Amino acid sequence: MFNIGCHLSTSKGYKHMGKEALSIGANTFQFFTRNPRGSKVKKVDEKDVAALLAIMAEHRFAPLLGHAPYTLNPCSADPKIREFAHLVMQEDLAALEYLPHNYYNFHPGSHVGQGVEAGLTLIVDVLNAVMRPEQTTLVLLETMSGKGSEVGSTFEELRAIIDRAALPEKIGVCLDTCHVYSAGYDIVNDLDGVLEQFDKVIGLERLKAIHLNDSLTPYNSKKDRHACIGAGTIGLDAITAFINHPQLRHLPYYLETPNDVPGYGEEIRLLRSLYRA
Ligand code: FE
Ligand code: FE
Ligand code: ZN
User: Fold this and answer.
1) Where residue 118 sits, what CATH number does that domain have?
2) The total number of structural domains that make up the chain
3) What is the pTM of this model?
């Protein structure tokens, strides 16, 4: 079973996203938990949530991926910005409990010159303040490209966050193919080697989701520019090998390529045709 979806807009509600996913052959999707600039969270409409849960059960959806606003910075040098990240993540996790047993993905943040070590400590402080033993949502750390002072572009940094967290059993990793390739993990020529490293440092059992993107920029460029599937430096052959890899083929895939909804539909059709039954 190939579980694939794409990023969808929340503007018309949960049920609408479920229907939209079905209309393009997806059986999961990603959505922003709120407007990416980090505005106020909308009150949860329980009827709308129930309608989505019914669609998900009927069509056997893979876990949904709620994405935190990418402007959050839990390891900012400014305490006000850290406090904002804390509040947003706390509210998002509370809201996600209306959709139990799904995933919450966030960018670990940028240490803005304080150094990786200080960044790691601040990220763990926020995580420990917002996570609860009773939550059903798994929190996913996204692998970053390493642009600017981003934390989380190496497997070791992600491991350090997990190691120091109070609830490591509720933390996993979302691997973004564009980001890891830009960060210097060669998934094109040495996918087995990269997975071996992931397993040694983090443990493959912690890998829960894939952001499937091609990249506009070269290997190890430390940039973050997504390309459409097959139109970038990763290329269709490497992407085909990736989705069919025995250690990766069971995971849910989420497209974040520069596309509108019909464009995502085309990519999903293409990828389904390349996935070996
Ligand atoms: Fe992201
Ligand atoms: Fe991503
Ligand atoms: Zn990106």
Assistant:
1) 3.20.20.150
2) 1
3) 0.97
What the block records as the tokens of 169 is 């059993």
**Domain, as residue range, for 257:** 4-274
Residue 89 tokens read as: 């993540």
Ligand 1 (ion): residues with CB under 5 Å are 142
CA distance linking residue 226 with residue 223, whole number of Å: 9
**Coil, strand or helix: which one is 272?**
helix
Residue 44: strand, helix, or coil? coil
Cα(254) to centroid of ligand 2, in Å?
9
Please give the Cα distance from 147 to 72 (Å, whole number).
Answer: 15
CA angle 259, 262, 266 (to 5 degrees): 85
pLDDT in tens, 99-155: 999 999 999 999 999 999 999 999 999 999 999 999 999 999 999 999 999 999 999
Whole-number Å distance, alpha carbon 225 to ligand 3 midpoint, is: 6
